[in-house]
Write a structure and sequence with these properties.
The chain is mostly helical. The protein has a single domain, classed as MFS general substrate transporter like domains (Growth Hormone, Chain: A). Helix content is about 75%, strand content about 0%. Strands 1-2 form a two-stranded antiparallel ribbon. The longest helix is centred in the middle third of the chain and has 36 residues. The protein starts with 13 loop residues before the first helix and ends with a helix.
């Protein structure tokens, strides 16, 4: 079956739907590679640039997360109004070039500046991807579509840690590399160059994606408003829903980024493993998150299909208490490296189940606002997750314990406090989530033509 032009509201064949999601998945893989390769190089970067744990967390989290969030909001508007192909092309090109440039940094301010660029470029991807997926798939398959796309974060993190660990070990033996016109690069600098360069070619895949309209199935399910819904009235009317639903997701993101940023340091400092070993183990553990993404899409779509309008929220609500227990056992109580790794692997699976909340926000939003709501969701996640997650652990380690070897205890404290807050948010979110879906199903935002009203 051939696909009609979706920009005019035509249909996309199942093959084209799958292709579009796979391309977006690949883009997310490269985004997370460029984003997370930094985590494995904590100590080499600290030693080279003479910075503290807190300064490193600012580069890893705040420098990236702040610009990711700030640029995400206007990008959401652009996604809703202009060609997603060009938005993706320029976004991928910018973040890939900025990652490569991180390898040229020779000071803390320079590295922070280029991390700003990585965050600004990556801000284009999720709004474009979420809006695309929610418009080409029917409602009861949206969560799984977003789950497949989100698997790119797990694959990209695993590849970054696995390849990064191998590269830094190999390049350390070589003493770094020398490039024409640039000069000598330390091992950690060379890793950035090698990881960032391929993304410049991945950017070209944006032009193979369709300019997305809604599939026939999706068009039949949700009538489009006759005129765009204003953003600010929508936010005001849904403020409680958005606060608790997106806020809960932001809290889970704090845990995810805090643990991802400092788990390598825990294995290196407390258990004395070498960087290559940590890279291989963290790569395998990170891939386990794919299970969570698959489960999030499966259970959320199944519950939603069965009539639970808060079905996207229910799975993660039951996962968070388990996460808290595993955090205490794996990072504070145990002295066994395999117990710690096993607990982190299960935490990683359970935390990714919260991915379905992003799908719920898309389904509760009129199509003309979905890019911007995706951007707001991502902004909240990254302002809280990337900016606060690594930083909170570093603050507890530096200013409470005054001992870098106590990073595991810091992770346990942050995990317990943030986990309890997430439980509260998700309990309060359920009623608001049901009401938000009801409004969409009843055509609350559908403005009939003036002639019909008359």
């Amino acid at each position: 079956m051939t696909s009609a032009n979706p920009a005019t509201g035509g249909t996309l064949s199942p093959a084209r739907q799958k292709y579009a999601i796979c391309v977006l998945l690949l883009m997310y893989v490269f985004a997370y590679m460029d984003r997370n390769v930094l985590a494995l190089m904590v100590d080499p970067i600290k030693e080279s640039l003479q910075i503290s744990d807190v300064q490193f967390s600012l580069v890893h989290g705040v420098a990236f997360g702040a610009f990711y969030a700030v640029f995400g909001l206007p990008m959401g508007y652009i996604v809703d109004r202009f060609s997603k192909r060009w938005v993706l092309f320029w976004g991928i090109s910018i973040w890939s070039a900025a990652t490569l440039a991180c390898g040229l940094a020779r000071s803390f301010p320079t590295l922070a500046f280029f991390r700003f660029g990585v965050g600004a470029g990556e801000a284009t991807l999720v709004p474009a991807a979420y809006s695309t997926i929610s418009r080409i798939l029917p409602k009861d398959r949206t969560a799984m579509g977003i789950a497949v796309f989100s698997m790119g974060s797990g694959i990209g993190s695993a590849v970054a840690i696995g390849i990064g660990g191998y590269l830094i070990a190999k390049l350390t033996k070589l003493g770094g590399i020398a490039l024409p016109f640039i000069g000598h690069l330390e091992p950690w600098q060379a890793v950035f160059v090698i990881i960032g360069a391929p993304g410049l070619f991945v950017a070209l895949l944006a032009f193979t994606l369709p300019e997305t309209g809604k599939s026939a199935a999706a068009e039949a399910e949700t009538p489009a408003p006759s005129e765009p819904v204003p953003l600010m009235p929508f936010l005001a009317e849904n403020r409680a829903y958005l606060f608790f639903t997106i806020g809960g997701l932001a809290l889970i993101t704090i845990l995810a980024y805090a643990f991802a940023a400092w788990m390598p340091a825990l294995l290196l400092r407390q258990y004395g493993k070498d960087v290559a070993w940590v890279g291989y183990v963290m790569s395998a553990v990170t891939l386990s998150g794919l299970i969570g993404f698959g489960l999030s899409g499966y259970f959320a779509d199944r519950l939603f299909r069965a009539g639970y309008k808060d079905g996207h929220v229910i799975p993660i609500l039951y996962c968070v208490p388990v996460i808290i227990v595993l955090t205490i056992v794996g990072f504070h109580l145990t002295g066994d490296i395999w117990v710690a790794v096993g607990c982190y692997a299960i935490i990683h699976i359970l935390a990714t189940i919260g991915n379905s909340v992003g799908a719920h926000v898309q389904l509760a939003t009129p199509p003309s606002l979905r890019g911007r709501l995706a951007a707001i969701t991502v902004a909240a996640q990254h302002l809280c997750g990337l900016a606060l997650g690594p930083l909170l652990v570093a603050l507890v380690t530096d200013h409470w314990f005054h001992d870098p070897a106590r990073v595991g205890d810091s992770m346990a404290i942050v995990g317990t406090i943030i986990g309890l807050l997430a439980i509260l948010f998700y309990i309060l979110a359920r009623a608001h989530a049901r009401a938000a879906i009801t409004r969409m199903e009843e055509g609350y935002y559908h403005t009939p033509p003036i002639e019909a009203v008359a």
